Amino acid sequence: MQVFSTPEPLKSYISNNRKHGKTIGLVPTMGALHQGHLELIGSSRQSNDITVCSIYVNPAQFNNQRDLIEYPRDLKQDLKKLKALDCQAVFCPTDDVMYPGEPVLSMDFGHLEKIMEGSHRPGHFKGVALVVSKLFHMVQPDTAYFGEKDWQQLVIIKRLVEDLNFPLEIVSMPVIREADGLAMSSRNARLTPQQRGVANELHRTLLLVKQQIENRTAIEMALKLGKQYLDRVPLITMEYLEVVRAYSLDHPVEELGREPLSICIAALLGDVRLIDNVQVFNE
Ligand code: AMP
After folding, report:
1. Is 0.90 surpassed by the pTM of this model?
2. pLDDT reported for residue 282
3. Is residue 37 annotated as part of the catalytic site, yes or no?
């Protein structure tokens, strides 16, 4: 496995492989890898000759300094896990490499970033789009892999690729969960045992709302029931619970309709912020 920390040797490695007709898959991550990440690597490994995993905790997408400082990092373990999966290349740059100067470019995703993560984490998607664009240029993948765990991010990245004609395909993978339903996240490692004991209530809340919608309860009422349910759970403070049209992120949604829905949640357990989502299809 090749480990790169600067773009130049990575670029020569990529162009060398391209010359030999190899296909390139990119899996962007912030490290502290778990099974959710590893499924993305596995999927890329299956469909590409070369898989590049990037590991970079991108300061530009953190609006909360404490969250950035406390974000779990474990490069040694990450490299072990990637090696075990036969990932061919890892790109783990430093801040100086990614941001040699203060960037002036600021991308705006309009209505897509006015809700949910966008409104609760100002500037978050500008930071995500910037680093993902940089990675796309540095790695020039044929395919890039993203998790549905970050649903709004996935929609925005697909839009970024479309609007800027990045010559690549985006492949998404379903949310990988712990046995009790908690969506895997690097941040889960920061939960106390007590917080971990209730953390799966986010998913249970989503399932409750989903079931209500499938039973044709009005969406506003379904959301109200979900909020009431989570309110009774100790140690969790909900930030938002929203129902949006899955691909357009249009909201508020009044009825199920043809476009699937995405029920999205964000909540704080102490200072650990978790997000999750489930989809609802009109059967
Ligand atoms: P992160 O390291 O949290 O930035 O995540 C890197 C990639 O892994 C993103 O595309 C995430 O959506 C994806 N991911 C993170 N957690 C999960 C999960 N539990 N299931 C599926 N994909 C995930």
Report:
1. yes
2. 83
3. yes
